[in-house]
Amino acid sequence: MLVDVTGTPDFTARPKVELHVHLDCSLTRRALHRLGNPIGEAEFRRVFTAPERCDSLMDYLRAIGPSCEALQTAPALAIAMDELLRALADDGVIYAEIRFAPHTHQRGGLGLDQVMAAVTEGLAEGEAATGIKAGLLLCALRDYPPDENLKVIELAHRWRDRGVVGVDLAGDEAGHPAAANRRVFDRAHELSLPVTAHAGEAAGPDSLREVMALIAPARIGHGVRAIESDDLLAEIKARNLHLEVCPSSNIQVGVFGDYASHPVDRMSRRGLSLSINTDARTVAPLTLSLEYRRLSAAFGWQTGEFLAHNLEAVRHAFLPEEAKAGLGARLIEGWGG
Ligand SMILES: [Zn+2]
Predict the structure, then answer these.
(1) Which among 86, 257, 270, 277 counts the fewest CB atoms within 10 Å?
(2) 36 conformational bin, left if phi > 0, alpha if psi -120 to 50, beta if neither
(3) Measured between alpha carbons, how far is 59 from 193 in angstroms, rounded to an integer?
């Protein structure tokens, strides 16, 4: 157990916003059932989730493999997205940005636009069934050739206003500097696509500085290793960069040794703009409500902190301003009581 949450409030009914969750790390058992795989709970946990604390990144990646394997057909992508929205709704999420790397779903022969057609079909079904709103972020991968990543940027441009709200840089941070993908994100900026980028998780302040200088994202996925440099923290704050923080995920892969030493509370107290996210709902396994209980148990977070960070998430969501106003009002109403 990462944190004993006994006695903490149940946050399920509270409205929440999630900006950082991966489709291929969040495949639900219900989706597998709908796809004809009658897998039981114990077997599902064994195959599709990683240990709470992984001994190596291999332990973690081993759990993502079967999900990726399952998401290579149009029906699988549509159903996985639909079921993820239902799981988000059950968790009290009212707006989510869901990310995936389209070019990793082509092993069954799908073209990139076919991948998008399937995912957006599931998105529409899930939104209609639950009433929640979600946007898609398409991931370029550090360990993929820039030319392949450029196709993802052009794809995001083609599917903008049909579900896509922005693009992301993901993949192996420690082994692949962001520099190789600079022109990929120059193109994203040229097309006015909102950009977020994973950094400051597997590598430290230098990697964050590189991404800020070369990729120029509006948000950073994780960014928690900025805690190693006061200057960097000050710069992130001065630039109004938003950090998508995923505490349990960081501990699972060993970025921090235990929950109590995670810097999220210190970063929050220093006034950085940050949101709380699951990263990988199935691989963890985790809900946002459980993550909030852990923050409540470990750092004493209460309504004030949770509401403030949800409002920051909305402020930095890749959404038109008029949509943000409605979400903000729902958050204030839902956390006010
Ligand atoms: Zn991530």
Answers:
(1) 257
(2) left
(3) 34
**Domain limits at 138?**
16-327
Given 18, 83, 173, 201, which residue is catalytic?
A: 201
Distance in angstroms (rounded) separating the CA atoms of residues 173 and 245: 16
Domain assignment present for residue 3? The answer is no
The CA 39 to ligand 1 mean position distance, Å, reads 26
What's the domain count of the chain?
1
Give the SS3 label for residue 248.
Answer: helix
CA of 174 to the centre of ligand 1 (A): 14
Walk along the chain (337 residues) and give the pLDDT tens digit of each residue.
789 999 999 999 999 999 999 999 999 999 999 999 999 999 999 999 998 888 777 788 888 999 999 999 999 999 999 999 999 999 999 999 999 999 999 999 999 999 999 999 999 999 999 999 999 999 999 999 999 999 999 999 999 989 999 999 998 888 898 999 999 999 999 999 999 999 999 889 999 999 999 999 999 999 999 999 999 999 999 999 999 999 999 999 999 999 999 999 999 999 999 999 999 999 999 999 999 999 999 999 999 999 999 999 999 999 999 999 999 999 999 998 5
For the domain that residue 242 is a member of, what is the CATH number?
3.20.20.140
How far does residue 337's CA lie from ligand 1's centre (Å)?
Answer: 32
Tell me if 219 is assigned to some domain: yes
Give a yes or no: residue 310 inside a domain.
Answer: yes
Which tokens in the block code for residue 187?
Answer: 């193109």
Can 69 be counted among the known catalytic residues?
Answer: no
**For residue 329, how far is its CA from the centre of ligand 1 (angstroms)?**
28
